[in-house]
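Let us work through a complete example step by step.
Step 1: write down the sequence.
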Amino acid sequence: MNFFTFLDKLKRNYNSLILYCLLDRIPIIVLGEDSDKIDNFLIELSELVHFRKDYVFYTDFVSMEDYENLISNESIDYNYQRAHIRCPCNVSLKALNQFDNLNSWLIGLIIPKLKEEFIEIRRQINNKAKELLFITISSDTISIKVEGINLKIIDLTLEQNIFKKITQDTEKSIAKMKRVLSDKITTTQLDKDLLKTLLDFEEEKNELKKNIFKREIQNFYSGSKRAFFILSRLNLLNDIGIQTHVGSKTLLETVDYEEAPIERMISFINKEWGENYSILIEDGKKAFMGDKIVSLWG
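Step 2: predict the structure and record it as tokens.
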């Protein structure tokens, strides 16, 4: 299943929510009855966060010791590529029995026929993660459910802007491609079916969407990493007694990325590199609480 075709079937803002969860390493559970469809969708999801290393449970590692070896460098080397774990349907129950930390996991799960068994699996999942996104794929419907995520608090501005950019830039590119062909032919030269075929860019449209998406995600990741390195140095100054802060506008201008609120970037830095630098941001209108933002101005 093509991810962008999948998004067209979703309610508004659900696509942004999926991207939010991917970026912030929130576990995503994909449910359904067709294991091939689910596993293919997991691959599509993992490819969206191309800056992370994709590891597959029971292929790249099988034990807790193997897993810890894979991610051991993350805590000591900030340049080390962060891991994303993909868990196919046939080994998902093994993973749930074996691992407690599901952060950045994409798990496929066949819905059991027995309701009691499904309830027990859900209970097991809920005990392992405070925040979860469930995507249920059936033959004709797709549904999204979040748990532990306050949708009134999170800011999806970044994610919404990315998908808006994808739509706008794709349409512009397709229009240019059609115009080049249309200028070279007239409708009297070709029959209608051949003309329709020549001007059909559906496959190219999907490829364009993927490329634009990757570009926008890379821009956010690179901007966040530049911000991370600046903030880490400011944090070092604070540790040695030189108290210093930076304004959110100044920081965004410095890293040359102003497409996302500073709070979203700070949240991503916290989840990607495990550092909370919110106290280093001079912003009198908002106070950070972990990776959540509470407005003091209503």
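Step 3: interpret the result. The chain has a mean pLDDT of 88.
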